[in-house]
Amino acid sequence: MKGLRVRGGWGMNGRINWKAIPTAFAMVLAIATSAYSQVQTPLQSEAVVRGNSGGTQASACGFIAGRPSQTVRVTEAFTRLRFRVQGGGRPTLLILGADGSVKGCARADNFSNGNIEAAGAWEQGTYSVYVGDLDRGSSAPFTLSIVQN
Q1: Cα(116)–Cα(93) distance, rounded to whole angstroms?
Q2: pLDDT > 90 fraction of the chain, expressed in percent and rounded
């Protein structure tokens, strides 16, 4: 069989390129899962997530994606956590409480080379962590790490 003919043409000459489908599916899956995870304290080791910063939603801390890069569930009051972002562009770190209120906002400046660090004691609850960008439409690879002190 030389290829399935379809109306409207999916590939050149109206044929489906079957070799491209697994690659396209893998790319969609990687994008959908690359920048989101959940962790819960106590952390046994450093939690790390990689993704692309920025998004289309304006926030108090730059432009962010529609869903968080990381969700952190703190199980004990006054748990000491340190959040670190390393990335390109002009990254921001936004941390929201379960009620949507801003619990932390940090921005990279001209001297930080795209690195942000925020540390403190966190109350019991669930926090949404976003890695955004100061510029609308900008996106750059980032690494977010969270450690418990």
Answers
A1: 7
A2: 68
Pick the closest to residue 83 from 105, 112, 56 (CA basis).
105
Structure tokens at 108: 């990279």
| 34-62 pLDDT per residue, tens | 446 789 999 999 999 999 999 999 999 99
d(CA 126, CA 97): 6
What's the pTM value of the predicted model, to 2 decimals? 0.75
Domains of the chain: 1-34 (no CATH), 35-148 (2.60.120.380)
